[in-house]
Structure formats: C-alpha cells, structure tokens
Description:
The structure holds two protein chains of two kinds. Chain A has helices spanning 3-28, 31-48, 58-74, 98-102, 113-120, 123-132, 135-146, 151-158, 162-186. By secondary structure, chain A is mainly α. The longest helix of chain B has 22 residues, at 37-58. The radius of gyration of chain B is 20 Å and the shape is elongated. Chain B has one domain (6-76). Chain B starts with 5 loop residues before the first helix and ends with a helix. Chain B is mostly helical. Chain A binds chain B through residues 1, 6, 9-10, 13, 17-18, 21-22, 25-26, 31, 35, 38-39, 42-43, 46, 98-99, 103, 114-115, 118, 121, 123, 126-127, 130, 142, 144-148, 150-151, 169-170, 177, and chain B through 14, 18-20, 38, 41-42, 44-46, 48-50, 52-63, 65-66, 69-70, 73-74, 77.
Amino acid sequence: MSHATKEEFTLLLKDVLPSMYRVSLRLTRDRMEAEDLVSEACVKAWEKFLSLRNRQSFKPWILRICQNLYISTYRKQKREGKPIPESRLVKKDEDFSLFEQLSSPLFFSSLTPEIEFLNTISSEQINKALDSLPEKYKSVVTLCCLEDIPYQEAATVLNLPIGTVRSRLHRGKAILQKLLWDIAKEKGII
Amino acid sequence: MNIISCVEAVKKIFELLGGKIKTSEKKQLKKHLKTCRECCNRLEFEKLLKEKLIAVNRDKKIPDSLEKRIHNILRNF
Lengths: 190, 77
C-alpha cells in the first residue's frame, strides 16, 4: 500500500485507539489481553483497510473488528469477577431505576439523595458493577453509555438491529443501576 | 402540541441523552419539564449518572507498552 494510505490509516487509528483500548479492556477485563486484542485488531484492520470505502465509518468498523476478534479468540470464562448469570436476573431488575428508589418518599436520607448517591459511589464500585453485567448488555452499555457512541454505530459494531441495541441498552442500564444499588447497600452507603 | 405523560417524558429523556431525539419530541419534553419537577430531577440525575460513567471510563489511559507496540506494528506495515 502507498505511503499516503499508511499515513491516513495511522491518523485515523490515533483518534480511535483510546476508545479501542477501553472497549477491549472492558471486554477482556485483563490489561495484557486487552493490549493483545488491540494489537491484533490493528493488524487485521490494516489488512482490510482498502476495502473500507467510507473512511468516516472507520471507528465503528475497527471496533467491530475488535469485537469479532474478541468473540472468536478471547472470550472465555474468568474465575474471578465473572458476570452475573442471566438466570439470576429477575424481570423487575430489567426495569430497575435508581432514581425511583432514591427519590421514593420512604427514602429520607437527604434533600437530594439521588445526587448525593452519585457523589458518594466510587469509581471502583462503578467498575465492579460494570464488570458484573451479563456480556450481551455490557457490550451495548460500554459502547452507548461509556463511549457515548450513537445507537446506529453501536448497531454496526455489534451487528445487531438498532431496535435490539435500544432494548438491550434499556435493560442493561436498569441492571447496572440495580447492581449499583446492591453494592451501595452492601457498603453501607445507603 | 400534545401534552405528554411522565412515562413518555422519561422515554424522551433517554432519547435525548442518547443523542437521538426529533425536534418535535424535544419540544414536547421541554413543555412537560416546565410543569414537572419530578421529571426535571430525573433528567438531572440521568445526566449526572451518564457523566459519571463516562468519567470512570475515561480514567483508563492507554499504557505506554501498548503505544510502543502499536508504533512498532505501524512501522512494519
């Protein structure tokens, strides 16, 4: 490939590398594996780069390569901190709302308990809750909530219809809020 | 313009935060928020939660070892 193509690829990659690393880290939950995944995805992306017609869609395109590589090579059960099994989720968890819990008249802790809750909960606790999400919800929550990627792009990355992305995001967010609620209760924050 | 319920307003709040809301729906939501303190608080909470999640995620910086690895990969292309 030409020098100009290589330069273009390098520039595009530089922009998306932080996002690729964060998504890979969230998927693998292991720094070394995340580094391997990103490196392999870069090589694969370079090999296929000429087939990418719309360079504006570089980010969802390369994240999809990452996602597919993770599914085919890296996905395995971990002994520690593995996601909660979906069988343990109950229907009401999929509609859980932290806001509704905290703003309930039965909850008298302060004038603005919702905001106080968010100020009190630590990054570590949020990461723990994120890592406990079942995988199919974690992928969508990672892309749409953490990376702030539009629904349509997330649908491209995950090869899912946009309606499925929306419904998984809704359920994923509710489960995440329930996990945060449980962690906060366990730690005595609420 | 139709007056929307709190349930509909919450749905539109999620659409708004997801960056996918039609102008007409945004107007409906604005109108609802003018008269509903509960939904205003909900919007504020969901915005803060989203910001908190993004901030936690952005804490994760690319390690130097990966930067070097990518640099070497690109050099060999």
